[in-house]
Automatic annotation (TrEMBL), chain A:
Record-annotated membrane-spanning stretches: 15-38, 63-82, 94-110, 116-135, 147-166, 199-218, 246-268, 280-308, 329-349
Top-rank lineage group of the source organism: Bacteria
Pfam families: BPD_transp_2 (PF02653)
Protein name stated in the entry: Sugar ABC transporter permease
Organism: Bradyrhizobium centrolobii
Cellular component, GO annotation: plasma membrane
Sorted UniProt keywords: Cell membrane, Membrane, Transmembrane, Transmembrane helix
From TrEMBL, chain B:
Keyword flag Metal-binding: no
Organism: Bradyrhizobium centrolobii
Domain ABC transporter substrate-binding protein PnrA-like residues, every copy: 27-298
Domain of life: Bacteria
Protein name per the record: DNA-binding protein
Extent of the signal sequence: 1-23
Gene Ontology cellular-component terms listed: plasma membrane
Coiled-coil intervals, chain numbering: none
InterPro entries xrefs: ABC-Purine-Binding, Peripla_BP_I, PnrA-like
Keywords attached to this entry: DNA-binding, Signal
GO MF: DNA binding
Amino acid sequence: MQLVLEKRAERSNTIALISPLIAIGLTIVTMVILFAILGKNPLLALDAYFIAPLTDGYSLQEIAVKATPLVMIAIGLSLCYLANAWNIGAEGQFLIGAVAGSWIAVKTQGTDAGAWVLPAMLLLAAAAGALYALIPAICKVRFGASEILTSLMLVYVADLFLDYLVRGPWRDPHGFNFPTTAEFDPVATVPLLIDGGRLHLGSIIALLVVAAAAILLGRTIKGFEIRMVGAAPRAARFGGFNANQLVILTFAVSGALAGLAGIIEVAGPVGHLQPGISPGYGFTAIIVAFLGRLNPIGILIAGLFLALTFIGGEQAQIAMKIPLDVTKVFQGILLFYVLACDSLILYRFRLVFPNRQVARGTG
Amino acid sequence: MRKTLLALAAGLLLAGSVGAASAADKLKVGFIYLGPIGDLGWTYQHELARQALVKELGDKIETTYLENVPEGPDAERAIEQLARAGNKLIFTTSFGYMDPTLKVAKRYPNVHFEHATGYKRDKNMSTYSAKWYQGRYIQGLIAAKMSKSGVLGYIGSFPIPEVVSGINATMLAAQTINPNIKVKIIWANTWFDPGKEADAAKALIDQGADIIMQHTDSPAAMQIASERGKLAFGQDSEMIKFGPKTQLTSILDTWGPYYIARVKAELDGTWKSEDSWGGLDSHMFAMAPYTNMPDDVKKMAEDAQAAITAGKLHPFKCPVVGQDGKAVECKGGDHLDDGQILGMNFYVKGIDDKLPGK
C-alpha cells in the first residue's frame, strides 16, 4: 500500500480563495490546544498575535517597515521563478546594493553634497544589484552553469565583501574599531513619512514596484512572454520567444530590486552600513514569493502577513511572557497550514495498492 | 457563528483589561537578549541576573525579556516594543544595540535605558560594563605556567577594544612568566556560533596551542579542548561541567548586584544616567574556582586576584610596549588610563599577528 499525491483534474476557485482562511482557522485551533497545554490563555495569545498589531498605528507602521524589503525582493524573484530562472541569491544582491549605495553615502559624508545624494544612492544600488545578478545569469546562458548554485554562492562573497569594508576602509574613525560606518548624513537618509514613527519612503517605492509588476504581468507582451516561457517552454520557443534573453532580463530586474531594497534598508531603518543588516531577507523573500503564489498582489499580502507574524510574535513574547521558541513554533504551524491547504487544493492524496495493480496488469 | 465570534471578542476584551489592571502598579523592567537564554554564556548570565532581580524585588517589579534579538534593523523595533509595553527601565544587553537604544531613548524621554558595553550615552541612557581585562590578566599568568608548548590559542569575537585589551592583558601577564610565550588568534566574527567556535578551537590546537582561551560565548571550545586533552578557560559563565578536567577558571559575568542596584534607584526615583565600569572590586564579574592546576599556580592566581582587587596591581602598568617596539603614552600615572583601555586598538609587543583593519 502506498500513499501518493496526485494532481486534481479540476480546481475550485472558491476553495482557492478561502484556503488561507481555512489555514488560519486550523492554526487557531492548533494554537488553542498548544497554549492550553502550556497553561497560557489562548485568547490573549490570539489577541497579541493578530489583533493588537492590527489595531494601533505604531504596529501597522512597523509591519509596513518589516514587509518593505521582503515585498520588493519577492516581486523580483517571482518574475525569475515565473520564467523558470532560479535566483536563490537575492540576499547577495541585497547586500551588494547596500554596499554600492553606501559608497556614495560614505564618500560624501561631512561634505556639503546636496539633495542628489539619496537618488544617486538608490540608482547605483539598483544598478549594482542588477550587475551582480547578471553573473549567475550569464554563467547559465553561456556555460550552462546551474544558476541555483552560482547565485547562492555569490551570497557569501557579498557578505564577506561587506564585512571587509566595514572592518577596513569604511570603518567609522570615531567608532572604537567597531565594525560599522559612521551614521549617514541626513541627505543620505531615506526620509520618514510620519513624525515619530519609522515608516519611510521605501514602503511607497515597494507599493509602486507591486503596481508595476502587476501591470507588467497582466497587461504587457513581455509579461505574457515571461509566463509563457515558464509554463510552456516548448510552445514559447515555437512562438519565437528567447528563453535565454528572459533569464538575463528577469535576473537583472530581480537583482536591481533586491539591491534597491538593500540600500533602502541601510539608508532607512538602520542608518549606517554594518554586518548583519539583513536577517535573511533574501531568503525569507523566497517564502514570500511562493506564499503569494508568484502574483504581485499575493506577494504584497504575503509580505505583510509574514511581517505581522514577526511583530505579533514579539508582542506575544512581551504580553504573555512566552519564550521565543513557542512563537517560532507558532509561525511554523501557520506556514505549514497555509502551504498544506494550498497543496491540497491542487493535489489530493490517494492510496495505491501495488499488488492489485500488478494483478490487473498481468491478468 | 456570529454568537461565537461575539463571545470571542468579548473574551478578548475582558482578558486584555484584566491583564492590564494587575500589572499597573508594579515597575516594569525590560531586557533585550542577544542569544537564546539557554546559550550557557553571555545571555544566560544576564538571564540569571534577571532571575536574581526578580527574587530580590519581585513584589515591586514585573520583568519581561525578548531573546535572540539580532543586532540589525530588528533591534530598534524590539526595544521600542518594550518601551511601548510600559517598561520604564530597559536593559539592552549587547554592544550592537547601542545606536538602536539611543534612537529609542530619544523618542521615549520618560523611559530609562541601560546599555551594556557601549560608549554612547544620553540623559536617559546609561552604560555599564566590566573590566574583564583584569580577569584576563590572571588567566594569562595561569596559561603561561600551565602551557607546555608555550603556545596559547585565543578565539576572538570581534577586533574591538574590549577584546583587544583582553588579548593584550593576557599576553602582558604571560610574558612575566615566559618572555617567549606565543599566542595564536582566530577571529570568529561572531559572539555566539558553537560550530564556528569549535572549528576555531580545533584549528588552534592543530597549530600547537595547548591552552584554549575564548572571547566567544558558547562552551563549544571547552568541549573540543576536553576531547583533545588540552586545557581551557571558560567565558561568561561556569563551564566546568563541559570540561571537568579541562577548565582552569572562567570569567563569570555577575550582573545581578548591578541590576538590583539600578532597579532600586529607579524605584526610589534616584536613577541618573551614568557610565559604570566595574572591576573585581565592584563584583561586576568574578573568577570561577581555580581548578585543574597545581597548588602553587593556584596560589599565584589567588594572589594576583587579591592584588588587582586591592588596586595594588594594574594589568596595564607602564611601560606598555606596542608591536612597533615603542612605549605607549602613559596617561594614567603609572598605568594606562581608562580611555586608553576603552579605545585600545593596538597589540602589545610579542604578539606576532596583525590586528584586523590596522
